[in-house]
Design goal:
Residues 221-388 form the O-antigen ligase-related domain. With 666 residues, the chain is mainly α. Helix content is 70%, strand content 2%. A two-stranded antiparallel ribbon has the order 1-2.
């Protein structure tokens, strides 16, 4: 009986890993609050919970716990511990634990999930399964690319799913897939990073295959993946691919290159043809970046009103400005950072004023657009060094594996190329659910088969170190242990389910209004397993809107009281959250006519906005609107002048200032 259960557990765990490799990149959902990242992350949560608790159950059935003997796991654990410490001192603990709402990836919960998946792979997989997992990763990448390529020609399958029409018109103009495809990843640079990770593995399978049909199949897959990469028009992706492929050639050496010369030349010819045919937009973007000088000044003169810029600011220019802000955050919190995933708030405390003169000045930046600076800002020097140590030790393990005299060594060299290329892409961007998951799966797939322990250890007895070995002395203890694990496992899965259902309720609330929206927001708040300041802030704002629209005095009083309670709870739960604070400021303003206390609250929260984002003109405009709406015209004029000193071409602020000045003259 025990053997049958163990076999079932092994099969369930293996299926979970296959699902992670194949399904995660393909998932997107219109039912969630965000199309791509949120449903992917929730799926990873679920799979990680299943793998973790089935593995614990397996330990109980075996009567022993084995911990894989590998330094990559040790450094990953150190990385997790530092993130826990950073969370304890975070400027926003909710975001540090659960992640930024539209991303989720990077929060402490996501890192726990990746650690469970990574460590579980060492316990549950073997060399044969690892190779199958890599094939599954390549197969899924092939499917993702085939899904995305038609969008380049105006026939996006995603639009067929979303609207029932096979075209590309379901996306906004700035996300036009005929210019830059993004398939099921949600953004061209994310798709490019994903393809940089998988393309070298596909190339390696073609090189090591002995059967002509399989060799040709992987050759075709590699060329298709490269086509998708070119169609993303991602400069970072193209650079990453060049580094990845260059690393593979360097690691292969002259002898191996000579043995595979015909095939490699065929790849090269295919790459060149694909780049020539589909690379026009990509090379135009490279030319654009080279011909434009990045902004270096942090200071702007307080000039008279200017016309807003219409030519889009080159993305490289914007990145440099954001990087300056990230370094300022790091200097303020050098040891543990401002907290995991809190860049959305810490950046605005130090946001360079030069950002106001870009065409993306009004966009909300929740990432540093450089993974390493993002870690520096969020986790400080300790978190960044531990991440680099994890990557370094993992690459060292891959290099050791690549020295073996078998065909799998080529796969390991390809994996090193994948990691190097991927790190290059996120130097100009950041990791997302799919890419971070696959990076850990690829690393684990090659470190698993090692039989001899690395030289860091004094012991050389076995691959795994027995931490505990205890045979069940009686059936009662055995079943109590197993039952406890099952209960905790079901509880963890229930928590994932609550996050998912709460997100569905929140998404439904965002698409509705009035009483129905209030019901949905209330459901989202109640279902989510923790106090969610984002849900509370939106609930408070919707209550305030409804209160301002209704003519029933008793109902209005109920709604304003509810708004006040929700607002206080939001500010208490997340006092440094710029996004929720802005919502609460507007909510108090909407109900300010009903009570003098609400007027003072509106002014107080409005003032706090300018403290949370002292160089952001939007904060001053919001505060000025509140001041003007409450009859404090002179104060509003001063606030607007500050906004215009930060951004002289701020048209909305200028128009409001003109109105107040005209009113003062009359």
């Amino acid at each position: 009986m025990s053997a049958k259960i163990s076999k079932f557990i092994d099969q369930a765990i293996w299926f979970s890993y296959l699902a992670l490799a194949i399904v995660t990149p393909l998932i997107f959902s219109t039912k969630n609050s965000e199309l791509f990242e949120v449903p992917k992350m929730i799926f990873v949560y679920l799979a990680a919970a299943i793998i973790f608790f089935l593995t614990l159950s397996k330990f109980i059935l075996q009567g022993k716990i084995t911990v894989p003997k590998n330094w990559a796991i040790v450094t990953f654990l150190i990385f997790i511990v530092i993130q826990v410490l950073s969370t304890l001192f975070s400027i926003d603990k909710f975001t540090s634990i659960f992640g930024y709402p539209s991303r989720l990836n990077g929060g402490l919960l996501s890192q726990f999930a990746y650690f469970a998946i990574f460590t579980g792979a060492f316990v549950n997989l073997n060399s044969e399964k690892s190779k199958k997992l890599l094939m599954a990763i390549v197969t899924s990448a092939f499917a993702v690319t085939l899904w995305g390529i038609p969008a380049h020609f105006g026939k996006d399958p995603s639009c067929l799913v979303l609207t029932g029409t096979l075209n590309s018109s379901c996306w906004q103009k700035e996300f036009d897939p005929t210019v830059r495809i993004f398939s099921t990843l949600g953004q061209p640079n994310w798709l490019a990073s994903y393809l940089v990770l998988t393309l070298p593995i596909a190339l390696a399978f073609s090189l090591i295959s002995t059967q002509s049909k399989i060799k040709v199949s992987f050759l075709a897959i590699t060329l298709v993946l490269f086509t998708g990469l070119i169609m993303t028009t991602s400069r970072a992706g193209f650079l990453g691919a060049a580094i990845a492929l260059g690393s593979i050639l360097l690691l292969l050496g002259f002898k191996a290159i000579k043995q595979n010369l015909r095939l490699l030349l065929l790849f090269l010819l295919g790459f060149i043809l694909i780049a020539v045919i589909f690379g026009t937009n990509l090379f135009s973007r490279f030319s654009e970046a080279l011909n434009k000088q990045p902004a270096t000044s942090n200071q702007l003169p307080a000039t008279s009103y200017q016309q807003p810029a219409t030519t889009p600011t080159e993305s490289g220019t914007i990145r440099i400005i954001v990087w300056q802000g990230a370094l300022s955050v790091f200097k303020h919190w050098p040891v543990l950072g401002s907290g995991p995933e809190t860049f959305a708030y810490s950046y605005y405390l130090f946001r360079p004023t030069a950002h106001n003169q870009t065409t993306e000045w009004g966009f909300f930046y929740n990432k540093a657009h450089n993974e390493f600076l993002n870690y520096l800002a969020n986790l400080g020097i300790l978190g960044t060094v531990s991440y680099l140590a994890l990557i370094g030790i993992s690459v060292f393990g891959l290099w050791r594996f690549s020295r073996k005299l078998n065909s799998d060594s080529i796969l390991a060299k390809a994996a090193i190329g994948s990691i190097f290329g991927y790190q290059a892409t996120i130097f100009f961007g950041f990791s997302v659910v799919t890419t971070q998951l696959l990076m850990f799966l690829i690393i684990a797939s090659f470190l698993i088969p090692e039989i001899k322990p690395p030289p860091f250890y004094s012991s050389s007895d076995s691959e795994k170190l027995k931490v505990s070995s205890r045979k069940s002395s009686n059936n009662i203890g055995f079943f109590i242990s197993l039952l406890t694990i099952v209960i905790f496992g079901l509880y963890a899965i229930t928590l994932v389910g609550r996050i998912y259902l709460a997100d569905l309720a929140f998404a439904h609330a965002e698409r509705s209004s009035g009483e129905q929206a209030l019901i949905n927001y209330s459901n989202a708040v109640d279902i989510f397993p923790a106090t969610n300041p984002f849900y509370l802030a939106n609930y408070a704002y919707e209550s305030a809107l409804y209160a301002a629209d209704t003519d029933d005095p008793e109902f209005t009083n109920t709604l304003t009281t509810q708004t006040q309670a929700l607002a206080e709870k939001t500010l208490s739960a997340s006092p440094n959250n710029l996004i929720t604070t802005r919502k609460i400021a507007n909510a108090y303003f909407l109900i300010s006519d009903y009570d003098k206390e609400y007027k003072q609250k509106a002014l107080g929260v409005g003032q706090k906005l300018t403290e949370l984002a002292p160089t952001d003109p939007q904060s001053y405009l919001t505060f000025a609107k509140i001041q003007a709406g409450l009859g404090q015209d002179e104060e509003a004029i001063k606030t607007l002048e500050t906004a215009l000193s930060l951004k002289p071409d701020y048209q909305e602020a200028k128009e409001l200032l003109d109105q107040l000045n005209s009113k003062a003259i009359q």
